[in-house]
Amino acid sequence: MKKFKLILEQTFMLSFLMQVVMGLEALYSHLTNDPIAFSWYVPLSILLASFLCSIPTLLFMTERELPKLIQRLLPLFHCLLLYVLVMGMGYLFHWYTTLTYFLVTSVSFFVIYALVWTFSRFLQKYDEKLINDALLTIRDED
Fold it and tell me: Hey, CA dihedral for 77, 83, 85, 88, is it positive or negative?
């Protein structure tokens, strides 16, 4: 159940932030009188990309003993793997057609990655606090 919850959290967090970026791009486009149009399948492709990105995250967050060097390189490998996945999905679904949009998509990816990483850590710490509080309550009752 915890794995399913993690996949759902990651999928919805990623898709929400990606939709926010799309909205900001559309707002900028509107303010600069530069018409922008999204195909009907773009929101669905974002949801699919979010789900696909949550699977490596699940593998990344599982508890296991690894050498220290690998533990330190794992976040970098995770980020690069997701970057390749997102940019591949972007190419496949035409999220970018010019170098400028490629760069915007790349920058958006790294901003979203940092935000999701921060939010995920916050949720993880919150869950740990709830568990610790529950254990203390049980111990106090005994």
Answer: negative
Range of the domain at 85: 2-141
Q: pLDDT tens for residues 11-40?
A: 888 888 888 888 888 888 888 887 777 788
DSSP 135: H
pTM, full prediction: 0.77
The stretches of 62-98 forming alpha helices (DSSP H) are 68-92
CB 17, CB 115: distance < 8 Å: yes
Cα separation, 126 vs 55, whole angstroms? 22
Domain count, the chain: 1
Q: Which 3 state secondary structure label does DSSP give 1?
A: coil
Helix (H, G, I), strand (E, B) or coil at 80: helix
Q: What's the distance, CA 46 to chain centroid?
A: 11
Which among 24, 25, 84, 16 is positioned nearest to 46, based on CA atoms?
A: 16
Phi-psi region of 33 (alpha: psi -120 to 50; beta: other; left: phi over 0): left
